[in-house]
Amino acid sequence: MVADDDWRLQGQERYLARAILIRRSYRPYPENPRWDHDHCEFCWAKFTVEDEPDALHEGYSTEDEYRWVCERCVADFQDRFEWTLKSEGTV
User: Fold this and answer.
1) pLDDT single digits (tens) 29-75
2) Burial class (CB within 10 angstroms; exposed 0-12, middle 13-18, buried 19+) of 39
3) Taking a C-beta distance cutoff of 8 angstroms, is the pair 40, 68 a contact?
4) How many CA atoms lie within 13 A of 65 on its CB side?
5) DSSP assignment of 65-81, as one string?
6) Where are the alpha helices (H) located in 1-91, listed in sequence order?
7) Which end of the chain is more exposed for a tag (fewer CB within 10 A), N or C?
8) No. of H helices and E strands in the chain?
9) Mean pLDDT score, 9-34
């Protein structure tokens, strides 16, 4: 159980409560493919297609692929945010 004062909690309830998150390989945001990376909405881990130290290449995104959450933060916050998790092939 994550404490209410966890540093990663910054009001994400406003836009991620009860969201559907889809596990997928990272790709740039479809509405702006010039974006070369995104960050986890909680811990700010970096998602990119590039081979960079500590970069993540897979994770969970909202259905529109605008917001990304790393596996660790999904595990930590899934119950609190009541997420529905899906795999990309089952959408």
Assistant:
1) 888 878 889 999 999 999 999 999 999 999 999 999 999 999 999 99
2) middle
3) yes
4) 16
5) S--EE-HHHHHHHHHHH
6) 13-16, 71-81
7) N
8) 2, 6
9) 93
User: Cα dihedral sign for 44, 46, 52, 58?
Assistant: positive
Q: Which two tokens stand for residue 35?
A: 């974006």
**pLDDT at 90 > cutoff 90:** no
Contact between 38 and 26 under an 8 Å Cβ cutoff? The reply is: yes
Alpha-carbon distance 34 to 88, whole Å? 22
What does the chain come to in residues?
91
Closest of 27, 24, 35, 37 to residue 88, by C-alpha: 24
Two tokens at 36?
Answer: 């070369």
Both tokens of residue 67?
């917001």
